[in-house]
Design a protein that fits this description.
By secondary structure, the chain is mostly helical. The chain contains 13 helices and five strands. A five-stranded mixed β-sheet has the order 1-3-2-5-4. The two termini are 40 Å apart. It comes from Suillus plorans.
Length: 317
Amino acid sequence: MELPTQTCASAPFDHAKADVILRSADGVEFRVFMLFLSLASPFFETLFGLPQASDGTSDQEMKDGIAVIAVSEDSKTLDLFLRFCYPSTLAEDPCLDNLTEVLSVLAAARKYSLDLIERKVCQALANPKVLETDPLRSFAIARNARLKHETITAARHNLRHPLIPALFAEINLITASDFLALLTYHKKCAIAVNALMKDFTWMTNHYGNIDSCIWLFNRPRYNQYCCGQGTDTRFLPWNTSPLAWWTTYMQEVYELLQDSPSGDTVRTAADRTIQKVRSANCAACSGRVKEGMTEFSNLLALKVEETVAPIELEMDF
């Protein structure tokens, strides 16, 4: 088997006065200081504290008068790992926004008993930016690493997305049982939220009476005739036909929540409705739709979040 070509790592892992060399699996040599690694990691503190043979009989590889220790991590993982070990004045903590690097760094952190890095990995998986764009990938990585809080958080954020996802590379990190548990959780949340669309007590309790919600109805008494009335009998608050565009909104949200039971689903659909109503240039609705729909969608989104909150992801950790 051909050995990888040996090269020197970049700064700060190329110091001439370093007292140990870590050689990565792909042949990159990191010239580092035992003190920094020992202070950061109990593993390295124990390793470097082992007695060394004084009669020259040791088979320890040496280079430039210092020991060379081969490790199983590749150079990219080792570089990230070592930057956490070094003082911030010499090496800033690396950013772990790239989820493809998280799992290998976490494995190294556990192998070398460095709790700080594990906490940093947990923070990376719970990063709102990551969860908004890649909740499934976060879920798979967190589940593979048996990180309970991060797994549950990612599953909750995944409610913003369709029940059946597109194929993603990290799916190989979880078992079929894990994936089934995620889909079951998603479906239970959708079923629970569906009940909100069949009983509008939460709405009538919030507004009190129909006069507190005049933006929602044609009101002949006030000479407010505008965008037509909805005819869908599923959506009749106070047993009164609302404006047609609100009925259309509720029909859309009803369908969307069955696949994506999240407050974000409600608010995003409301934003679309506001734009549509304004573009229709209705004299009565254009000026009041934003205020009315913002309050209503925030209320419905809150009820959706409250409904799914008690539902548990049934998974052993």
